[in-house]
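thread from #wetlab-drylab

HS: before we spend reagent money on co-crystallization trials with glycine, can we at least see a predicted complex? here's what I'd submit
DV: go for it
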Amino acid sequence: MNIVEVKLGSRSYDVVIDAGLLACAGDRLAPLSRGRRMTIVADENVAPHLATLRASMDAVGVASDAIVLPAGEKSKSWATLEALCDRLLDLGIERGDHVIALGGGVIGDLVGFACSILKRGCGFVQIPTTLLAQVDSSVGGKTGINARAGKNLIGAFHQPALVLIDPDVLDTLPPRQVRAGYAEVVKYGLIDDPDFFAWCEANGAKLLAGDPAAREYAITHSVAAKARIVGEDEYETKGRRALLNLGHTFGHALEAEAGFSDRLLHGEAVAAGCALAFGFSAAHGLCSAEDAVRVGAHWQESGLPDGLSSAGITADGAALVEHMRHDKKASGGRIPFLLTHGIGQTYLDKNVDLSDVEAFLDAQRRP
Ligand code: GLY
């Protein structure tokens, strides 16, 4: 078992990572129950995990209610948020209660946001069931829903009280989803940890094949990296947390072009976006061409897109830059880019000329 503490003063919390943890999660949840019923919000894809979780709570005398929502991005809506808040209020949720979010990033973001506004803020616990949610979205307190104008535009910072990660739940996750989550694992190496990127090169295939030791090591290492960065810059105001957006500005444009659909999963867009960030940096003499090639090669070995064509994107630079203009990180008409001086040397550049980005993207298009 590994425990990583997210150090945020009075809002500090533990992330517990352990194979088989779901079956004994009740032990960890009982102290948060205050002798009351606890509510679990899950999506319909995780029914077997919901049964395991409820049994573990029953075993320690914690009664539970379950709310099951449709799976998928559509649940991150005002309508679902309203219905969820009403149901939680009907169940008598109090400010001191902790709602349990069991599922991937959609459930975590939605439940976290509901808990940030219910009774002006109640507690919640994250039990992420996708690799992407385990290594990124369940840790750090970003919560929210989508708006007509774009993804994640309505939200709040609201930290969970506890995160429980059982790597074994990934056994039943579709391989494509595991690969997409793996992009966020590798991202931590690309940001500021070249040794971890080298570990990924050597062990990524084992991890993707479900090797338990590789999986637990990568999750723990990723969570520790995220906890460190969030601890330094919880509200993304000091330039540190923004590093976690490596690959996201390019990736966001690709996702938007794909209509935020299953054509291109978020993690796949992040992989292609990281490759483009390295390619752009290399093209401008900021990092070596060898490092950009190394990143692309690792995505190819991992079955992830390494650029526009492998991401299935045919749009030109102008269309992709237009998507970037709607990025929520835009400020004063400028878009901050995460660029790099090499593997493990990501930095924030607020002065990138969009005409350079457009020309670079046009040059990436293959006939
Ligand atoms: N997923 C990026 C962050 O939590 O800041």
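DV: The mean pLDDT is 96.
HS: ok that's useful, forwarding to the group
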